[in-house]
Write a structure and sequence with these properties.
Length: 343
């Protein structure tokens, strides 16, 4: 008799969970946005996909307690938490103060972006406590493993990023002069786990003497990889346009083109002619569309000036993964691309 009652209660609780999943606010993963989540964090009160459930489990049960909606048994208290919270209320709670520079991951993003978003959101609770957002203060100092130019081995090096000086430095010996000083406004950072065999690897690209230079680094824990910035796209009648011919002195930029904005020019490089054409077609479609009042208001919010721009498409200077096909990202219009700044 007791076992029958227990089975009946478990079935009733699962039925309630399935009904909650059918609600619009719970139909997508609370963290990466992919459709059809089948897992849940029952102490936080959110529904997540299989991959994000793994990241939640890595946080530890003191932060997030994960269960399968369809495979695990649920008690009434756990279901009640899910009913009282849900993805929409959890977003209001845990994403109350997400910086403009912080990219919320979409389903097609690399693993490290999703994992770091989850750690920042629930473990460090950076969007609840703004004092934890050290990446918006314009200065960061720490150590990364850097690949040596001569031996190809990775050595621990000190790196210092200083927004006020517009510099990104690294040191071979900490108390000596920096080995290299790179202008932040002229560098590009790209996730490259396949090149370095680390999920937390980056390729830092900059131009020196007309030649592209690369620095490969990774961190042990992958903490705090953040985008450098974004390029807003506006209407072609307001100084935004594309050129296929590269300026003299720019070498090794692959199949490149120039993106002109009212403020400056950007050289964009693709791996193949087909990829370049895809990028140019996607961007031109945005530039050809008339501006809306929301577009102008968005630029005013970001920059405090009434310069016409596009808010529904922008390029991050964080770039796409090497060896991956360029694609159109439904969340933000266009995926990432390698960018070199023409100063």
């Amino acid at each position: 008799m007791f076992n029958r009652l227990k089975i009946r209660m478990a079935e009733e609780n699962r039925r309630k969970l399935i009904q909650l999943l059918k609600l619009p606010q719970n139909s997508h993963c609370a963290d990466c946005g992919i459709e059809g989540p089948e897992w849940a964090s029952y102490n936080i009160g959110i529904f997540v996909c299989t991959q994000c459930a793994g990241f939640h489990r890595n946080l530890g049960s003191h932060i997030s307690k994960v269960k399968s909606v369809f495979l695990d048994n649920w008690d009434s208290t756990q279901v009640e938490i899910m009913e009282n919270m849900g993805n929409d209320k959890a977003q209001e709670k845990y994403e109350v103060d997400v910086p403009l520079c912080y990219k919320k991951p979409c389903p097609t993003d690399v693993q490290v972006l999703k994992e770091q978003w989850i750690q920042a959101k629930y473990d460090r609770q950076e969007f609840l406590h703004t004092e934890e957002q050290i990446y918006v203060k314009g200065f960061m100092e720490g150590h990364l493993w850097k690949r040596g130019k001569e031996d190809g081995k990775f050595h621990l090096r000190k790196f210092v990023l200083n927004e006020a000086e517009d510099t990104f430095k690294y040191y071979v010996k900490e108390h000596k002069e920096p080995k290299a000083v790179i202008r932040i406004s002229e560098l590009n950072a790209t996730f490259c786990p396949m090149k370095v065999n680390s999920a937390n690897a980056m390729q830092i690209t900059y131009i020196k003497d007309g030649t592209t230079r690369n620095v490969f680094v990774y961190s042990d824990d992958g903490k705090d990889p953040y985008p450098k910035g974004e390029i807003f796209l506006g209407y072609m009648g307001n100084g935004f346009c594309l050129h296929k011919i590269l300026p003299a002195g720019i070498k090794e930029s692959g199949f490149g083109f120039i993106l002109e904005t009212p403020e400056r020019s950007f050289v964009v490089g693709a791996d193949t002619e087909e990829e370049r054409r895809e990028w140019m077609d996607a961007i031109e479609k945005i530039l050809e569309r008339p501006l809306t009042p929301q577009d102008s208001n968005m630029h005013l919010q970001f920059f405090g000036q009434n310069l016409v721009t596009r808010s529904n498409l922008y390029l991050t200077l964080f770039s796409k993964l090497p060896d991956s096909k360029t694609s159109v990202c439904p969340h933000q219009g266009v995926d990432f691309v390698d960018v070199w700044v023409v100063s």
